[in-house]
């Protein structure tokens, strides 16, 4: 049973009953054990590690607390800036009854000097961070390594993704700067070999492995109806617009995420749909961190909105009440498909997932054939919808189309199945250009063609 202040904090934060992952991990973490927990996103795992860690901190003797006043006692590492901000928001809710504890976030994409000033002015006990920026502070912020010597609990959230993103060296460097007798908690949607390896390095030998994912229920959510549509590229914008219009008409509280292949394709899709007078927000890696945070916070709070996103929002970010997730174009792999779908059907609510592919992308379906993805009837788009879409495409700047074409080409060129046949890639590029309303594909700078290994392929125009 969680202590009284913790129970009040949980209740006030809007949590009723404990979720499965919380029930399974809380008692073990409160015993001071190191834990590797396999848990899907959207199952309440953030509270599962924050709540007991806050209890540990609140019980530190006052003498130790004043002595370590400027020490960081709880360090949480997250793979993305969005997830770090979200964890910090949850922590602040849970700290309502622990006024003496403070939270700060340090993430890339913001000015390091501003973070240094904030940390100096308001030393906090709880720090939520992305590994790259954490390493920057370790190397460049005076006194930061001393503050890390106070870490009592270290959390790696989305451990598999932290490692996928190449943060292993940074993580090992940061771990080495924290005390050996700390408590370590790893939460991960999957437990591949690399997560096992880091758990052996990071945790005590008697660590507990807690699996809250049932066999055969690896990552997908049973309450998400998953469908796919196969249609020629030149119909994709019209089909997307048709599907969105119907969904918006059917559900006044609609909340949609559209995932695209790259940041520049995301920008193009957002611009086209905005021209069609839909309520659009866009988020991708080319946006500034402050713009991404603003859009992310607004989408979390709002209803009646459509977020067009690159994979910056695919995993770990908890947007409540998402009614529909659309994936346009081939996902990078099965894992990515699953994590994107995981943005809907969260916390027991129903959701809908739609994958929109061109006929030459249909081979992807074999990698998800065990996930109950069924074929949806492709809508017969009426001529007025097609006319509206053509008009919207005409109003989008040529620069956006050029950037999207270049990014699209780079993405499909790096796909082993599609990019293997370069002359076919030329034809597919022409098809994509036509889908944007262009008579011919834009020219590409020679240097970029060379980087893609396409400079000697006939059919690509260069500048």
UniProtKB/TrEMBL annotation:
This is ATP-dependent RNA helicase. RNA helicase. The keyword Iron does not apply. InterPro entries: DEAD/DEAH_box_helicase_dom, Helicase_ATP-bd, Helicase_C-like, P-loop_NTPase, RNA-helicase_DEAD-box_CS. PANTHER family: RNA HELICASE. The Q motif is unique to and characteristic of the DEAD box family of RNA helicases and controls ATP binding and hydrolysis. PROSITE patterns: DEAD_ATP_HELICASE (PS00039), HELICASE_ATP_BIND_1 (PS51192), HELICASE_CTER (PS51194). Its EC number is 3.6.4.13. Pfam families: DEAD (PF00270), Helicase_C (PF00271). It comes from Aegilops tauschii subsp. strangulata (Goatgrass). CDD domains: DEADc_MSS116, SF2_C_DEAD. It catalyses: ATP + H2O = ADP + phosphate + H(+). One of its GO terms (molecular function) is RNA binding. Belongs to the DEAD box helicase family. Keywords: ATP-binding, Helicase, Hydrolase, Nucleotide-binding, RNA-binding. Residues 239-397 form the Helicase C-terminal domain. Residues 26-209 form the Helicase ATP-binding domain.
């Amino acid at each position: 049973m969680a202590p009284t202040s913790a129970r009040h904090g949980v209740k006030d934060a809007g949590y009723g009953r404990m979720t499965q992952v919380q029930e399974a991990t809380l008692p073990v973490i409160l015993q001071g054990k190191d834990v590797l927990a396999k848990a899907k996103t959207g199952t309440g795992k953030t509270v599962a590690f924050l709540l007991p860690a806050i209890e540990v901190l609140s019980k530190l003797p006052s003498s130790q607390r004043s002595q370590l006043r400027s020490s960081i006692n709880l360090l949480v590492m997250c793979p993305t800036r969005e997830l770090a901000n979200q964890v910090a928001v949850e922590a602040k809710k849970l700290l309502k009854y622990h006024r003496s504890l403070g939270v700060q976030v340090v993430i890339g994409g913001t000015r390091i000097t501003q973070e240094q000033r904030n940390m100096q002015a308001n030393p906090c006990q709880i720090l939520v961070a992305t590994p790259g920026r954490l390493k920057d502070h370790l190397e460049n912020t005076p006194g930061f390594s001393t503050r890390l010597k106070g870490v009592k609990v270290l959390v790696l959230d989305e451990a598999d993704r932290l490692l996928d993103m190449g943060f292993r060296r940074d993580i090992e460097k940061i771990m080495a700067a924290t005390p050996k007798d700390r408590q370590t908690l790893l939460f991960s949607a999957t437990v591949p070999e690399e997560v096992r390896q880091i758990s052996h390095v990071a945790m005590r030998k008697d660590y507990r492995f807690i699996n809250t994912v049932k066999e055969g229920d690896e990552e997908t959510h049973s309450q998400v109806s998953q469908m796919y549509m196969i249609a020629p590229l030149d119909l994709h914008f019209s089909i997307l617009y048709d599907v969105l219009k119907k969904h918006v008409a059917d559900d006044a509280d609609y909340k949609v995420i559209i995932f695209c292949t790259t940041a520049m394709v995301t920008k193009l899709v957002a611009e086209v749909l905005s021209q069609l007078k839909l309520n659009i927000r866009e988020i991708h890696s080319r946006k500034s961190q402050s713009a991404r945070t603003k859009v992310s916070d607004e989408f979390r709070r709002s209803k009646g909105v459509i977020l067009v996103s690159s994979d910056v929002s695919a995993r770990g970010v908890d947007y409540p009440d998402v009614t529909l997730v659309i994936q346009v174009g081939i996902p990078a792999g099965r894992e990515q498909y699953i994590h994107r779908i995981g943005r809907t059907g969260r916390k027991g609510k129903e959701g809908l997932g739609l994958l929109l592919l061109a006929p030459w992308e249909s081979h992807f379906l074999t990698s998800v054939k065990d996930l109950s993805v069924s074929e949806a009837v492709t809508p017969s788009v009426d001529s007025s919808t097609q006319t509206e879409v053509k008009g919207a495409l005409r109003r989008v700047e040529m620069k956006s189309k050029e950037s999207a074409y270049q990014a699209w080409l780079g993405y499909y060129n790096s796909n082993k199945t599609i990019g293997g046949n370069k002359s076919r890639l030329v034809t597919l590029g022409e098809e994509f250009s036509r889908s944007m309303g262009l008579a011919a594909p834009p020219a590409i700078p020679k240097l970029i063609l060379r980087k893609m290994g396409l400079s000697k392929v006939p059919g690509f125009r260069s500048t």
